[in-house]
Design a protein that fits this description.
The structure holds three protein chains of three kinds.
Chain A lengths: L5 E10 L5 H9 L35 H17 L3 H4 L4 E6 L9 H8 L7 H8 L2 H9 L5 E4 L5 H15 L4 E8 L3 H9 L23 E8 L1 H7 L5 E10 L12 H12 L8 E5 L6 H14 L5 E2 L2 H4 L6 H15 L1 E2 L21 E2 L4 E7 L4 E9 L4
Parallel strand pairs in A: 2-3, 2-4, 7-8, 7-11
Antiparallel strand pairs in A: 1-5, 1-6, 4-5, 6-12, 9-10, 11-12
Chain B lengths: L2 H12 L25 H15 L6 H7 L3 H14 L1
Chain C lengths: L3 E9 L2 E2 H11 L5 E5 L6 E6 L20 H16 L11 E6 L5 H14 L6 H7 L3 H10 L5 E4 L5 H15 L4 E8 L3 H11 L19 E2 L1 E8 L9 E10 L13 E3 L5 H10 L4 E2 L12 H15 L16 E2 L10 E7 L4 E8 L2
Parallel strand pairs in C: 4-8, 5-6, 5-7, 11-12, 11-14, 12-13
Antiparallel strand pairs in C: 1-2, 1-9, 1-10, 3-4, 7-9, 10-15, 14-15
Helix pairs in contact in C: 2-5, 3-4
The chains are: A alpha/beta, B mainly alpha, C alpha/beta.
C-alpha cells in the first residue's frame, strides 16, 4: 500500500539552540553549543550533569512549561504557514503532540506535601490537568478537530507527525499541527542519571568516548495541510511527508534490541510508503543520543540499510528533548533539505570501531531531495519519517 | 549479619526475586545472564541499592562490571571500599 | 473496510473477564470498595472501584512479572483476556500485531514511587526501575514484550477522551494497513495520590452509588481497571462481537451531530456533574442506557461502555440500569431484559471544554 505525500507548509521550534527555527539554524551551523548544569532547578546529587536549557523563556502561570513551549512553536509554525485565525476558523484543524512529562501527574512538591501530611491543595494538579500539550494548542486557537497527545517516550514526536499525516490523508481534518514538547525538570534529570546514561560532559553522539545523553527541552510544531486547502490558498509547501514507519522491538523496557530488528522494520515500512529507493536518501538525522547502546544499534542498522548515506545527530546542539526530539529533528530535517546542507554532528571526535560508521564532521552539502529522521524509544518503539524537499511547482 | 547475607536479602526484597529465598542464592553464581537472571536495568538498580544501603557510590558500569560478577565479588568490593573509607 | 471486534478482555470493579462483566450487567449490581488515603489527617477510605490482577498468573509466569507494576499488570491482564476471548491465545505468533493503549493518568503509583525514592533517600538514590516503569507507555511496552508483538505500538493520553482518541488511531492503522490486528485497550490505575487528588477535587461522595442519569448532580466515583478489544480487519470468516462503525473526536456538539438512525442506543453518562447538562442535551433524542455504575467514572469508562455495547449487540439484549433508571431529563431509558431493537450503539465521552468523542459499534 502506498500513501500520497502530505504537504508541510509551516515550521516552528524552540530549544536551547534558539527561540525560532531561523535562530536555531544559525546557531547550529555556527557550531555553537552550551550545555551547562541546570539553573532552573537544583539537586543534591554530587555530580552536576550538563543540560541544554532554554535561557530566556518563561511559561505563563497556570500552564506547564512543556505546553507553553509547544504553544510557542505552534505560533511560529502557523505564522510561517501564513494561516490567519479567520481562515482557520473555517477549517477543521487537528492537533497531535508528543510528550513525556506533559501529561504525567508527577509533581514533586505535591507529593512531598502529601507525604508530610500537609494536605496540598489542587493548584499544582490543576495546572497539569489544564496543560495537556495538544489541548492547550487547540484551546488557544479555537480548533475543533481531533486532538491527541502521544506518549511513546522518546519517539512521541515522530509518531505524532506520522499520525497527523494519516489524519490529513483520511480527511479527518483539513490542517493538522503536529509535533512535540518537553521541559527539563528534576524528575527526568534524576531518572536519566539513575539509569547511568547521562554524560558528565557535553554529549558525544557516535564518539568512542560517549558516556550518555544530556537532557534538553524543546517545543517543535509542523503544519500539515491537505491538498484541498493548499489549492484554495495556492500555498507552496516547504516540504512533504513521504513516509512513516513504526515497529516495536518487543525486547526490553530500556535497552534497544541488539539486532535492530524493530528499527529495520520501521525504516522498511517508511520507505515502502512511497516506494523510495534507499539510495535516494540524501542524509539521515539520526536519533544519536550518545548512549553507548543506542548509537551502536542505530549505526549498524544504518550501515546495513542505508550504506554510505551521510548521517548526523543534532542532539549535540539541543540535548535529548525526549517527547519533542522527533519533532524538532523533523523540523531541522525539513530546513536542511531546503538549504541543501547539514551541519557537523556535534560532539563527535574519535570514531568507534564498534559502530557501523561515523557521522559528518563538517558542514556537508548534498544534491538529493529526500531525508530520513528516526527515533528510538524506551519501551522498544522505533519510528521513522521520510521528508521530501518541495519542488518548484 | 555479614555483607553477603545482607546483600542476598537486598537482592530478594528490592529486586523482587520472589521465587527465591536469600539462602538459595549461590555466593558465586553470576548475577547476570544464566545465574540469577538479572539484566541491565537490575544492574543500574543495584548501583542505587549499594549506595542506599552501604553508602558506596559506583560511578559507572565499567566500575560496576567487576563488582557485579557474583554476590561474593560484590560483598568483597563493598567490604574493601568500606575498609578504605 | 470492516473492523471487527474479535475478543474482549476486561478487569474492573465488577470482576475479571467477559463472563463476570456480563453477570454484573445482568444483575445491575455495582460493587465498589475503597482506596485508603493515609495522609488525610485521619486515614480516609474513599469509595472506589478496584480491579484484581491475580488472574494474570494464569497467563504469565511469576518470574516474568518480577518488575512489572500494577499499571502494567492491569494492561497485561486486559490484553491476555482479550486474546483468550478471541481464541487466539494459543496462536503464539503476534508479530505484526499493533498495540494501542489509552490512559488518562498513566502509571501513577510508580510515578509517585519514583519521586518517593529520591525524597526519602536523596537524589543519588532515585530508582531507575521506578523511572523506567513510570513512563506512560510502560503498559504498552510490557504488553508488546510479553506477547512478542512487533507491530506499531502507541499510547495516547487525552484525559477523558483517551479512549475515543486512541481508538481513532487504532482504526486508522487498520484502514491504512499498518497492522492487520490491533490490540486496543484502556488502562487506569488507582494510586493513593490520585485518590487524594480526586477527593480534593470532588469531595467525599454524597451518594452510596452512582446516579449518572441524574445529570444535575455529582455522583462520580473513582475507579481503576482495564478494558481491551482485539480489533481485526481480516478474519472475514470470524463473526466476532460486532463491528466498529465510526469514531469521531473533536469540539463543539453541533445540533444533529448524532446519527440516531435505526433506533440508536446511546451510552456515556458517568456521574460527573460538569458534563451532565451537555449529556442531557444530546441524550434527549436517542434511547439511552448507562452502566458506569458498574465500573466508575474513570477515563477508561468509555472502553467499558464499548465492551458492554459489544455484549448487548452479540447477545441481543439490554441490561438494567444499576442506578434504577432514575433520570432527570426527558429520555427513553432502556430497561433490562429486552431485545435491543437496534443494530447500532454509541458511546459518547464529554469534557468541560466542549470536547467530545463518539464511538459507534454496529451488529455484524
Amino acid at each position: 500500500m502506498t500513501f500520497s505525500p502530505v504537504a508541510i507548509t509551516g515550521l516552528g521550534c524552540i530549544c536551547a539552540a534558539g527561540n525560532s527555527l531561523d535562530d536555531c539554524m544559525r546557531s547550529i551551523f555556527s557550531g555553537a553549543r552550551n550545555p551547562a548544569p541546570p539553573l532552573r532547578f537544583s539537586s543534591n546529587h554530587p555530580i552536576r550533569y550538563p543540560v541544554f536549557e532554554i535561557p530566556d523563556f518563561a511559561e505563563p502561570s497556570g500552564m506547564l512549561r512543556t505546553s507553553a513551549l509547544g504553544l510557542h512553536a505552534a505560533r511560529e509554525a502557523l505564522a510561517d504557514a501564513g494561516l490567519e485565525r479567520e481562515f482557520l476558523d473555517t477549517l477543521r484543524v487537528g492537533v497531535c503532540m508528543g510528550t513525556t512529562v506533559g501529561c504525567a501527574m508527577s509533581n514533586e512538591t505535591f507529593c512531598r506535601e502529601y507525604r508530610s501530611g500537609n494536605l496540598p491543595d489542587m493548584t499544582l494538579m490543576e495546572t497539569i490537568l489544564r496543560s495537556n500539550p495538544a489541548s492547550v494548542i487547540a484551546r488557544e486557537f479555537g480548533f475543533y478537530g481531533p486532538c491527541q497527545t502521544i506518549v511513546n517516550a522518546c519517539s512521541s514526536g515522530t509518531d505524532a507527525i506520522g499520525l497527523a499525516a494519516s489524519w490529513i490523508r483520511s480527511g479527518v481534518c483539513d490542517i493538522a499541527l503536529a509535533g512535540g514538547a518537553d521541559e527539563l525538570g528534576r524528575i527526568t534529570y534524576l531518572g536519566f542519571i539513575s539509569l547511568l546514561i547521562s554524560d558528565e560532559n557535553p554529549c558525544r553522539p557516535f564518539d568512542i568516548n560517549r558516556k550518555g545523553l544530556n537532557l534538553g527541552e524543546a517545543g517543535a510544531v509542523l503544519v500539515l495541510e491537505s491538498e484541498k486547502v493548499r489549492s484554495i490558498r495556492r500555498k507552496k509547501a516547504r516540504s512533504f511527508m513521504l513516509g512513516y514507519g513504526s515497529a516495536c522491538d518487543a525486547y526490553h523496557l530500556t535497552a534497544p534490541r541488539p539486532d535492530g530488528a524493530g528499527l529495520k522494520s520501521a525504516i522498511t515500512e517508511a520507505l515502502a510508503c512511497n516506494v523510495i529507493n534507499p539510495s535516494s536518501i540524501a542524509f539521515v538525522n539520526a536519533h544519536g543520543t550518545g548512549t553507548p547502546e543506542n548509537d551502536k544499534v542505530e549505526t549498524r542498522v544504518l550501515a546495513e540499510m542505508l550504506p554510505g548515506v551521510p548521517f548526523l545527530s543534532t542532539k549535540g546542539y539541543t540535548g535529548h528533548t525526549l517527547g519533542a526530539a522527533g519533532a524538532i529533528e523533523a523540523v531541522f530535517t525539513a530546513a536542511c533539505l531546503e538549504l541543501g546542507r547539514i551541519p557537523a554532528s556535534a560532539g563527535f571526535v574519535t570514531p568507534d570501531p564498534e559502530l557501523g560508521g561515523t557521522p559528518v564532521t563538517e558542514i556537508t552539502s548534498f544534491d538529493g531531495t529526500i531525508a530520513l529522521s528516526g527515533s528510538l524509544a524506551f519501551g522498544g518503539n522505533n519510528s521513522v519519517i521520510i521528508l521530501g524537499k518541495a519542488g518548484e511547482s | 549479619m555479614n555483607t553477603i547475607e545482607k546483600l542476598k536479602k537486598i537482592l530478594v526484597t528490592d529486586l523482587n526475586l520472589e521465587e527465591l529465598t536469600p539462602e538459595e542464592i549461590d555466593d558465586n553464581a553470576p548475577l547476570f545472564g544464566e545465574g540469577l537472571g538479572l539484566d541491565s536495568l537490575d544492574a543500574v538498580e543495584l548501583v542505587v541499592l549499594v549506595q542506599k544501603y552501604f553508602g558506596i557510590e559506583i560511578k559507572d558500569m565499567e566500575e560496576g562490571r567487576t563488582a557485579f560478577q557474583s554476590v561474593s565479588a560484590l560483598a568483597a568490593y563493598i567490604d574493601a571500599r568500606l575498609a578504605a573509607a | 473496510m470492516k473492523i471487527t471486534i474479535l475478543g474482549i478482555g476486561v478487569a474492573g470493579g465488577f470482576g475479571t473477564g467477559v463472563k463476570e462483566m456480563h453477570d454484573a450487567l445482568l444483575s445491575g449490581q455495582g460493587n465498589h470498595s475503597t482506596i485508603l488515603l493515609e495522609n488525610c489527617g485521619e486515614p480516609l477510605a474513599l469509595p472506589a472501584f478496584r480491579a484484581d490482577t491475580s488472574r494474570l498468573k494464569d497467563f504469565v509466569p511469576q518470574k516474568a512479572l518480577r518488575r512489572i507494576d500494577n499499571f502494567s499488570k492491569l494492561g497485561l491482564l486486559g490484553a491476555y483476556l482479550a486474546l483468550e476471548d478471541a481464541g487466539l491465545l494459543a496462536d503464539g505468533c503476534h508479530d505484526q500485531l499493533g498495540v494501542v493503549i489509552a490512559t488518562g493518568y498513566g502509571a501513577t503509583g510508580t510515578t509517585f514511587a519514583f519521586i518517593d525514592s529520591f525524597i526519602n533517600d536523596g537524589d543519588i538514590c532515585a530508582s531507575p526501575t521506578h523511572f523506567a516503569n513510570s513512563v506512560h507507555n510502560s503498559a504498552a511496552a510490557n504488553i508488546s514484550m510479553l506477547l512478542g508483538a512487533t507491530g506499531p505500538c502507541s499510547t495516547i493520553s487525552q484525559f477523558h477522551h483517551s479512549v475515543p482518541s486512541a481508538l481513532q488511531t487504532a482504526s486508522l492503522w487498520l484502514t491504512e494497513g499498518r497492522a492487520d490486528r490491533v490490540l486496543f485497550g484502556a488502562v487506569e490505575e488507582l494510586s493513593e495520590l490520585i485518590g487524594y487528588a480526586w477527593y480534593r477535587q470532588r469531595g467525599y461522595p454524597v451518594h452510596a452509588g452512582m446516579k449518572p442519569l441524574m445529570t444535575g448532580m455529582e455522583s462520580a466515583l473513582i475507579g481503576e481497571g482495564a478494558a481491551f478489544m482485539l480489533l481485526s480487519r481480516r478474519d472475514e470468516e470470524r463473526e466476532g462481537y460486532c463491528q466498529l462503525e465510526q469514531v469521531t473526536t473533536g469540539k463543539g456538539l453541533a445540533p444533529g451531530f448524532l446519527d440516531c438512525a435505526d433506533d440508536l442506543l446511546l451510552l456515556g453518562a458517568d456521574g460527573r456533574q460538569e458534563i451532565g447538562a451537555a449529556y442531557a442535551t444530546v441524550a434527549e433524542h436517542p434511547r439511552i442506557a448507562c452502566f458506569t455504575g458498574l465500573y466508575s467514572s474513570s477515563s477508561a469508562g468509555p472502553a467499558f461502555d464499548l465492551a458492554a455495547a459489544a455484549l448487548m449487540l452479540k447477545n441481543d439484549q439490554t441490561y438494567p440500569d444499576p442506578s434504577g433508571g432514575t433520570c432527570d431529563f426527558q429520555a427513553t431509558v432502556a430497561t433490562g431484559g429486552e431485545i435491543i431493537r437496534t443494530s447500532r450503539i454509541s458511546s459518547l465521552s464529554l469534557s468541560e471544554d466542549n470536547g467530545f468523542g463518539l464511538v459507534t459499534l454496529k451488529r455484524v
